[in-house]
Write a structure and sequence with these properties.
heterodimer; A: alpha+beta; Immunoglobulin-like; five-stranded mixed sheet; about 20% helix; flat; B: mainly alpha; Growth Hormone, Chain: A; elongated; repeat (chain A); Fibronectin type-III domain-containing protein (chain A); transmembrane (chain A)
Chain lengths: ~900, ~220
């Protein structure tokens, strides 16, 4: 501390003597030290000195660092003209430390304000760290080692942009009196040239010096023989030879450009079977000597091998291994198959009953040791063996496509067993025999299957787990068979295997039927089976949705099952979506569902629906299917119709019942009893008056009693009998619904005649068939022909006859009736109804003309119009028309 | 009786002392061997390095002469048959190993001067890309390294003897020569140098065989 203060005072003394001459004219303040380089994490003390003036004292000074005033606690007043400040160096940024004078109002300050400030730039950095992990190498250049010496190291510590760290690489050749080779860099690697030649058999000492403005430090010195740093090229011209007499051996030759006198090399060799990943190294002890060839042994016959060679300085611990040479491939020669062929069978239903179709298939032996050209097969019935001994072998060439050869197909009776033997042949020799037993079908179940078989994908493979069969018989091996589509493959596992992975090629998104067969000393046991996917994905196809049945509030949807090849996974569920345009509803149903009934739908509404089939790998959505719900629920319409019908039927029945039970009342109301004129007593008292002669008279105008009535009377009558005329509405007119004594012929029946001439024919029929009864208006006794009217005034009575007795005229003169009907049908349009009785029509017209002047006002006009409304009046016309002819009887019809 | 007893005690004492001395002798010899092995390792490495480098240069000098002859055009064999004066003697002189090593070092320095002269002459005669120049550079550089190794070996073998003088004795270089003389001179220098290197190698191998490092201890 004292020492530092002494140094500081010394510096100030120097300043006092040196600076004034130089900066006198420029500044009144001076900060020392100038342009310091500071180490991060330390404290820095600067002094501000007042020079060439006594106007300002140390009390007027203050410090700022990076524009911020430094607190006074960090100041130290040395004397009246010097002020210290101590600041910690914490930021890497370059900062300005300024010494300033407080503002004063003195004239001196105002004139020299720009000279009362001084600052220094604080450059900050770190002391360089010691470089670590120095390593160097000299590579091969043709037949020499390059003089370019490359080194790299790890830098330690930080550095700042203002105080960067440089690295100088030194390389000294020992023993030697010369200066070491050196080169400086800012990076952590560099190269140095070692004279005109690489210093073989000399010692190299290498080190790195890290240095900056704050100091320098050297790395550990690397002092090794020059060969220690050498990295050669890999051996060139590597060749591999196979010799037919050595199927398990390959000979490797190589050369190297570096002469042994310059650098003695050692080699390493590695090899692998073509297509495998792992290399097999040759033990270094076998290749330690300076060799140029090597023989690989214990290889597999007829296998392609890849071989690489590398080299380094032979001196132990010296030099770096070169890169590996380029891969050289060579196939070893063929040898006799040293393992059995892999025999298997596929059993299917045979053509005949109780028969199986057995296809024998096989794969090349695992140790085929060459190209298998054919298989020899022998199928033997165990019983035949006893009888005939061994059968002949049959040679089957190996399949040229794929690894599985179809050997032979036989039809085997269910109750028969066979044993099959095969061997494989290559160009060198034959393999040992493999055999397989096919049991009688009934006995297959005797050999228990494996238990609790599980098949699951794991890390890109399909794994199987099972438990051994619960059987007293000993399992000799297992066969794992997998069938995907039309592809079948299998592999054999040892007896103690309980879990394995399928080693054959499996495709993603394909459903495999995996079976595990226990083999009991060659006898194939009952298999355990599972379906599995190596990887599941979204289905390729979506189910096709169709409306099966639609109701008012529900609809049944059916969808198709996705084909096996398009499922690409196990369907976990189906999700049914449906919407009527606003909200989408969805329902998830199990995978085994192919139909679903949507409920709570709105009637007469269009719905869009689609189905999503999901697997664990994804899902597929079907196309939209639209349907519209019904307006009425099924049966609802029928219910209404039936209800209405029943109601109608009920009414009808009730009406009929009413008619039946109230027949008399109805009859009395609608068909009042009409006295039979024939039986009337009046006929008795005028027996000489023939009925026949009277009839025409009754039908003719002469027989008609004319009712002389005024309008008022007519109306009254009309009102009274209104109900009875209801049927006369429309085009049916009751013109002939007349009444009249003697005129109550067919025409006086309540038939409905049509005023329209076009319907005349129908009218005739109607008349002929329906006119059975007539309404007879009872006339006053005085109205009857030949009767002497009662002198006593009778009360006006105008009621219908209720007689159901057929009119005599109709019964006695049907011809007349028909003629009348036909005449009516031939009538030209509306014509005033008239009665025909065979009289001269001209006379009738004449009578009608006579009637016209009569004051019959509104009623007569109405009748001419023949409108349904006026029909009522028309009814009255016939009675009015013959008015003049019946004038004498007029008084007899006047209502009383 | 007492005399016999005394004799017996003395005999036992002598046996114990002999055993102890034998044990100490064995321990001393063993420790000496350990030190010898250590020292052998210290001087053995420079000797081994020097031996290998001299062999390398000698082999490369053989190739160098072939390259030299190939690069000199016609009558190259004739150039090498002509004798030239003032070429250093390829033989190593001296009776003691130290003297012989000094002789090797001195001759090497002499040859380097002539070698440099040949290099300079061939630089004028050959194109800059000539392999001869490359090989001359390499042999010259290795010869310098060889001189450093011999010096180091000498210092490790004979640390109490005066340090070898790199300047060596004064050597007479030939006066300016014409091209023919240059080619003849070059071939003679290279041939003589090759012989010298062979002698160096044999000398060093002799040193190695004699296990100088061990005997010196």
């Amino acid at each position: 501390m004292v020492c530092a203060r002494v140094l500081q005072l010394l510096a100030l003394a120097c300043l006092g003597s040196a600076l004034p001459a130089r900066v006198e004219a420029d500044y009144y303040l001076m900060v020392v030290p100038q342009s310091p380089v500071l180490e991060m994490g330390t404290n820095f003390t600067a002094t501000c000195v007042i020079i060439n003036t006594s106007e300002v004292t140390a009390d007027d000074l203050y410090w700022t660092l990076a524009g911020t005033t430094v607190p006074k606690e960090q100041y130290t007043k040395i004397n009246g003209s010097a002020l210290n400040v101590t600041v910690p160096i914490t930021s890497e940024k370059t900062e300005w430390l300024m010494c300033k004078c407080k503002k004063k109002t003195t004239l001196f300050f105002i004139h020299n304000e720009g000279k009362l400030i001084h600052g220094i730039d604080l450059k900050k950095g770190y002391v360089p760290g010691k470089p670590e992990n120095l390593s160097c190498e000299a590579v091969q250049q043709k037949q020499y080692i390059s003089t370019t010496f490359s080194c790299e190291w790890q830098t330690v510590g930080s550095q700042t942009a203002t105080v960067p760290t440089s690295y100088t690489l030194y390389t000294a050749v020992l023993p030697g009196s010369g200066q070491p080779y050196s080169v400086t860099t800012q990076k952590n690697r560099t190269q140095v040239k070692l004279g005109d030649t690489f210093p073989h058999y000399m010692t190299l000492e290498v080190w790195v010096e890290a240095h900056n403005k704050l100091g320098k430090i050297e790395s550990e010195h690397l002092k090794e023989d020059s060969g220690w740093f050498v990295k050669t090229d890999p051996p060139s011209d590597v060749k591999v030879f196979s010799e037919k007499s050595f199927p398990t051996s390959l000979l490797i030759n190589w050369t190297h450009l570096i002469p042994t006198i310059r650098l003695k090399l050692t080699y390493r060799i590695r090899y692998r079977q073509n297509g495998t990943q792992n290399w097999t190294p040759v033990p270094l002890g076998d290749t330690a000597s300076d060799i140029k060839s090597f023989r690989l042994q214990d290889l597999q016959p007829y296998q392609v091998y890849e071989i690489q060679v590398s080299c380094k300085n032979a001196k132990e611990g010296h030099g770096y291994w070169s890169d590996w040479s380029t891969i050289v491939t060579k196939r070893t020669p063929e040898a006799r198959p040293t393992s059995k062929p892999d025999l298997w069978r596929v059993i299917a239903e045979g053509d005949g009953k109780n028969e199986r179709r057995v296809q024998f298939i096989c794969k090349d032996p695992v140790l085929a040791n060459g190209r298998i050209v054919s298989f020899d097969i022998k199928i033997q019935d165990p019983k035949d063996k006893v009888k005939n001994g061994s059968l002949e072998w049959k040679n089957i060439p190996r399949s040229s496509q794929g690894k599985i050869t179809d050997l032979k197909q036989i039809d085997l009776a269910d109750q028969k067993s066979v044993r099959v033997y095969i061997n494989a042949t290559n160009s060198v020799g034959k393999s040992d025999e493999a055999s397989l037993f096919i049991l009688a079908k009934a006995r297959e179940s005797e050999l228990a299957p494996v238990e609790e078989l599980k098949v699951f994908p794991h890390r890109g493979q399909l794994w199987l787990e099972w438990k051994p069969p619960n059987s007293t018989k000993l399992v000799s091996e297992y066969v794992v068979e997998w069938v995907g589509g039309a592809q079948i493959d299998w592999q054999k596992e040892k007896r103690n295997t309980t879990h394995t992975a399928i080693k054959g090629h499996l495709d993603k998104f394909v459903c495999y039927n995996v079976s595990v067969y226990p083999i009991y000393s060659g006898w194939i046991g009952k298999p355990a089976r599972k379906e599995a996917y190596l990887e599941q994905g979204a289905p390729l196809e979506a189910p096709i949705v169709r409306l099966h049945k639609a109701g008012r509030n529900q609809a049944t949807l059916n969808w198709t099952e996705i084909s096996q090849g398009s499922r690409r996974g196990f369907i976990t569920n189906y999700t049914i979506f449906y919407t009527s345009g606003t909200e989408v509803h969805n329902i998830t149903v199990p995978a085994n569902t192919a139909s679903y009934t949507l409920t709570s739908l709105s009637g007469n509404t269009k719905y869009d629906t689609w189905v999503k089939a999901s697997t664990i790998g994804g899902s597929k959505i079907s196309f939209n299917h639209s349907f519209t719900t019904l307006r009425y629920a099924p049966g609802e319409m029928e219910f209404i119709v039936v209800g209405v019908s029943l109601g109608f039927l009920f009414i009808v029945v009730m009406t009929m019942l009413l008619c039946v039970y109230k027949k008399d009342v109805i009859k009395e109301n609608f068909w009042p009893q009409i006295p039979d004129p024939g039986e009337s007593t009046i006929g008795n008292w005028s027996p000489d008056y023939p009925l026949k002669a009277d009839t025409p008279r009754e039908n003719g105008l002469s027989g008609i009693s004319v009712l002389d009535m005024d309008v008022c009377d007519g109306k009254c009558v009309f009102e009274e009998d209104k109900a009875s005329l209801s049927l006369k509405k429309g085009k049916y007119l009751s013109e002939e619904h007349s009444s009249g004594i003697g005129g109550s012929s067919c025409m006086s029946s309540p038939r409905q005649s049509v005023s329209d001439s076009d319907e005349g024919g129908d009218m005739a029929d109607t008349t002929a068939s329906t006119v059975q009864y007539s309404s007879v208006v009872p006339a006053p006794p005085s109205g009857y022909k030949g009767q002497t009217p009662n002198s006593q005034p009778q009360q006006a009575l105008f009621s219908r006859s209720e007689s159901t007795q057929p009119l005599l005229d109709c019964e006695e003169n049907p011809d007349v009736l028909q003629q009348e009907g036909s005449r009516q049908s031939q009538r030209s349009p509306p014509r005033p109804p008239r009665f025909t009785d065979g009289a001269d029509p001209a006379g009738i017209a004449e009578q009608q003309e006579l009637l016209e002047p009569l004051d019959f006002c509104p009623l007569g006009e109405d009748s001419e119009q023949a409108t349904p409304v006026d029909g009522q009046a028309a009814d009255w016309l016939p009675a009015a028309a013959p008015l003049s002819s019946y004038m004498p009887q007029l008084g007899g019809y006047r209502p009383q | 009786m007492n005399g016999h007893v005394k004799s017996m005690n003395f005999q036992q004492f002598m046996e114990q002392a002999t055993t102890l001395l034998s044990l100490l002798l064995v321990m001393a010899v063993d420790s000496t061997r350990a030190v010898a092995a250590s020292r052998n390792q210290q001087c053995g490495n420079p000797l081994q390095q020097t031996l290998k480098l001299s062999r390398l240069i000698q082999k490369e000098s053989v190739d160098l002469i072939k390259t030299y002859k190939a690069s000199q055009g016609e009558m190259s064999d004739l150039f090498c048959k002509v004798s030239v004066n003032n070429i250093p003697d390829p033989n190593i002189s001296g009776m003691e190993h130290s003297k012989r090593i000094v002789s090797i070092y001195t001759h090497l320095q002499d040859f380097l001067l002539h070698f440099n002269r040949v290099y300079d002459q061939q630089t004028d005669l050959q194109s800059s890309t000539s392999p001869l120049l490359t090989e001359l550079e390499i042999v010259r550089a290795r010869s310098i390294y060889l001189g450093e190794l011999i010096n180091s070996l000498y210092q490790s073998l004979f640390p109490n003897l005066p340090v070898l003088d790199p300047a060596g004795r004064p050597t007479t270089l030939p006066p300016p020569q014409n091209v023919f003389q240059q080619k003849v001179y070059g071939c003679v220098v290279l041939k003589t140098y090759k012989e010298f290197l062979l002698n160096v190698f044999q000398e060093l191998r002799t040193l190695k065989k004699k296990k100088l490092c061990i005997r010196r201890i």
